[in-house]
Prior knowledge:
The structure is a single chain. The protein is α+β, with helices and mostly antiparallel strands. Helix content is about 35%, strand content about 20%. The chain has helices at about 10-20, 25-35, 35-50, 90-95, 125-135; strands spanning about 70-75, 100-105, 115-120, 140-145. The radius of gyration is 21 Å and the shape is elongated.
Amino acid sequence: MDAPIELDAIDRRILRALQLDGRLTYDALAAEAGLSSSAVLRRVRRLEEAGVIGSYVALVPPERIGLGLTAYLNVRLEKQTESPLRNPRDLFRAAVQTWPEVVECAALTGEMDYLLRVLVQDMQHYARFISDTLLMHPSVQDCKTSFVLERLKNTTAVPV
C-alpha cells in the first residue's frame, strides 16, 4: 500500500468540499479554498494522481430504489485446507464479488472471518439470499445476522 501523502490545510478544505458535493465547479471550489481556479485545478489533479481522490460517484439512497432492508452478516468460513486447489478464503472472496446484494465486505479478526453489508428489498429477498446464495457456498460454515432498525449516521466522507 502506498504511503499517505502530506496534505496541507488547503488540500483538506478542497477534500472536505468535494466530499460534500463532488460536482462543485472549479470556480466554486476555488472560492472555498481561497485560491484561483487554475491553482485548484492543479491541486485536484495532483490529489487524483496520488490516489487521494479515488473516484466521483452518485450516491443512491437504497430506500429510494426499493432496497429497504439493510443487514450486517458476520460470516465464518470453514478452516483452511492443505490443497492449493480449494482455498476457502479465495473461493469466498471471488464469490462475494459476484453477489449484487453485498455492497461491502471486510475481513475481520476474531471469531468471525468476514462482515458483509447486504442491501435487499425485504425479508423474503433476504431469506432467498441466505438460503440460495450465502449458505449454499461451500466455504461458508456459519453466519449471524443483525438488521438495521435506524441509521443514526451514514456518511461516505472521511475525516480530513
